[in-house]
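We were asked to recover a plausible sequence for a given structure. The inputs and outputs are reproduced exactly as logged, with field labels preserved.

PROBLEM: sequence recovery
POSITIONS: 368
GIVEN STRUCTURE:
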């Protein structure tokens, strides 16, 4: 977008992984950045401070378009943009935490979504399933919603996530480093190690499967978030003590880990339009995913992976065993994995569609 506009990126000083800070984004994307600290949790005092700060930033910058992402930045950003008189206000819905909540907190999160959408001129759910959810729950007028292309917030850089960039001898040394037997069938999970990502069910399934089949391993790439949806104690124990489970923590570059693996397992409870299955697919991996928004749009059952019931460890067990034993299915899904991403989710497709949206609103302003 820097080819067409002056772009300013506003976010918290540090991402939730802590390894990534806003200056890294500024350097990588070559755009000006402004730090406004926003809590991912509900924190009225900090949220009010962030809202006021955003308002003054926007009054000073006078942007033509404000485009927000994530629930908290969406709420604060859309409110601040409306109060500041920003002429074009757009919001991307990349996930709905309320799906896994109940009671008062659920009602509060629903209200937050409604307020965010009411302040926006256009809302972009990043999956068709998510769009249907918003319509079914009457969060906003359906005419305000639009899914770009086949879904996704930003698409995938298929030239970056490309298995041709890696060689087998690099992977051999990496497997030796993490003590993964070279002939093991390697399952991989990438994401935050929290309950909502289905990690409890994944570990239980793998432990039982490893008792039946000895030449399989599981690689976990991601960081614990103990303050958000902590894992069961038994899951913690198995991660640290099972000889065939390898936890490598958060990684800035996950491509080599995808390349050294055979199958992605991503049994999340909720997603908007997850990047991990797209990244894995671009790297040629078949995937086992839960039957939720986004995942069941990226993966077509028995074509580029398997779709399983949510929160069902037995279904995950059966799918992992099937992918391991059924070589014909595995090879077919692996063959289709990258092709599917290239055809539907290359990031240039999403960028062009998003630029069209920006130009549409620009034209409206000129004609107003």
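RECOVERED SEQUENCE:
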């Amino acid at each position: 977008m820097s080819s067409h506009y002056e772009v300013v990126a506003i976010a918290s000083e540090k991402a939730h992984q802590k390894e990534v800070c806003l200056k890294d984004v500024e350097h990588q994307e070559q755009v000006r950045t402004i730090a406004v600290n926003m809590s991912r949790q509900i924190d009225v005092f900090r949220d009010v401070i962030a809202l006021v700060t955003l308002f003054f930033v926007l009054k000073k910058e006078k942007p033509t378009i404000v485009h927000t992402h994530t629930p908290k930045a969406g709420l604060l950003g859309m409110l601040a943009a409306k109060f500041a008189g920003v002429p074009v206000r757009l919001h991307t819905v990349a996930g709905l935490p309320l799906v896994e909540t109940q009671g008062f907190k659920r009602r509060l999160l629903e209200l937050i979504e409604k307020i965010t959408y009411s302040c926006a001129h256009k809302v972009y759910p990043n999956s068709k399933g998510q769009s249907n959810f918003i319509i079914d729950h009457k969060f906003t007028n359906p005419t305000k919603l639009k899914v770009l292309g086949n879904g996704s917030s930003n698409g995938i850089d298929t030239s970056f996530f490309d298995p041709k960039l890696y060689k087998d001898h690099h992977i051999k040394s990496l497997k030796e480093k993490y003590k993964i037997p070279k002939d093991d069938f390697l399952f991989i999970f990438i994401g935050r190690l929290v309950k909502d990502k289905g990690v409890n069910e994944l570990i239980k399934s793998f432990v039982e499967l490893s008792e039946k089949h000895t030449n399989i391993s599981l690689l976990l790439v991601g960081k614990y978030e103990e303050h958000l949806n902590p894992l069961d104690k038994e899951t913690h124990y198995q991660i640290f003590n099972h000889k065939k489970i390898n936890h490598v923590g958060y990684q800035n570059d996950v491509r080599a880990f995808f390349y050294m693996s055979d199958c992605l397992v991503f049994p999340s409870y909720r997603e908007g339009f997850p990047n991990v299955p797209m990244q894995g697919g671009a790297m040629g991996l078949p995937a086992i995913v839960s039957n939720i928004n986004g995942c069941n749009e990226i993966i077509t059952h028995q074509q580029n992976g398997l779709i399983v019931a949510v929160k069902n460890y037995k279904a995950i067990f059966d799918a992992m065993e099937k992918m391991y034993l059924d070589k014909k299915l595995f090879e077919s899904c692996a063959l289709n994995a990258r092709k599917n991403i290239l055809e539907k989710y290359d990031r240039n497709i999403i960028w062009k569609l998003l630029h069209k949206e920006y130009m549409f609103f620009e034209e409206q302003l000129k004609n107003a």
